Amino acid sequence: MLKKLIATAAFAGASFAIMAPTASAAPAAPESNVSAAAAHFAGVYPNANAARKACNDGINQGRWRGCSYEFKQGQTLLWVV
């Protein structure tokens, strides 16, 4: 039983180590007034109003200082600094 737990944990750790770099890769930051080097991808929203609300909520909570938006196929991508 203990061997199975150790083997499972080792396999899970190896899988995470392999997948982590690809899972954390975000698409390139859009051209905007926010520095591309400092912008972080914050999510995809169904429309500009939802993205703007998320931006304002994050600023009010002190999670970021500013936002930029990218519009793709009817959805809005939110980038924050």
UniProtKB/TrEMBL annotation:
Decide whether keyword Signal is in the record. yes
- Name the keywords, alphabetized: Signal
Position of the signal peptide: 1-25
Q: What is this protein called?
A: DUF4189 domain-containing protein
